[in-house]
Design a protein that fits this description.
The chain has 11 helices and no strands. Helix content is 63%, strand content 0%. The model has no long low-confidence stretch (mean pLDDT 90). With 210 residues, the chain is mostly helical. Helix 4 runs antiparallel to helix 5. It is globular, with a radius of gyration of 18 Å.
């Protein structure tokens, strides 16, 4: 798909609270279904031909959460890492998975996502303690200052790479090198880096056996 074929993104209107917490909270529970139904745009723009379908946003976050559970790094708060995994793309329920090739500046993407989180927290969840926990986790990931946030960022990179590997193995796809190039070299956490090395070794072995 060439750049000019990418449709202009249209954002749904932000929710306006009714004042009834029960009603507004249910609205939040409904809107996060979008994470299950919206596909990761990097794969849809690449037009991966799969037997099933491109992964959804929640597919991506779920595997990241399980990857976090697999870590043996005792310095990390793994429970927090799992929560960061399931919150880090939450804003995409409102704005979608904005890909770089759409040409939306990073600052504008950040503004749209922050606006979505603010809407969830204040309009839907009435700034409850649970809402504040979600907001704090999202901000922690965005700021990338804690070891847990940096670890989860590396899981985000690794998950993209292993998804590309899954397509290669299952579909015989041979045009996904950019997904590896844009993720694996940037991984810093030693354990995740070792997983990346294992993945590259597996790919190399698979390529030589074809």
């Amino acid at each position: 798909m060439v750049a000019q074929d990418i449709p202009k993104r249209v954002y749904p209107p932000l929710y306006r609270k009714t004042g009834d917490l029960n009603v507004d909270r249910l609205a939040f529970f409904h809107v996060i279904e979008q994470l299950k139904t919206q596909k990761r745009t990097g794969w849809t723009y690449h037009e991966v031909n799969t037997v099933s379908y491109p992964p959804s946003i929640s597919d991506h976050m779920y595997r990241m959460a399980v990857l976090a559970l697999c870590s043996s790094d005792v310095k990390l708060n793994i429970a927090k890492c799992v929560m960061l995994c399931v919150v880090h793309d939450l804003a995409e329920a409102q704005v979608g998975d904005i890909a770089p090739r759409e040409g939306i500046p990073k600052a504008e993407k950040r503004r749209l996502e922050a606006e979505a989180i603010h809407n969830f927290v204040h309009e839907m969840l009435h700034n409850s303690p649970a809402a504040q926990r979600i907001e704090a986790l999202w901000n922690e990931y965005e700021e990338q200052k804690t070891e847990e946030a940096q670890f989860v960022k590396d899981l985000d990179r690794f998950e993209m790479a292993i998804q590309a590997s899954d397509y290669e193995r299952r579909e015989g796809t041979t045009t996904l090198q950019s997904f590896f190039d844009n993720s694996l070299p940037h991984i810093k956490h030693p354990e995740v880096k070792s997983w990346a090395d294992d993945l590259e070794a597996e790919r190399a072995q698979g390529n030589t056996s074809r």
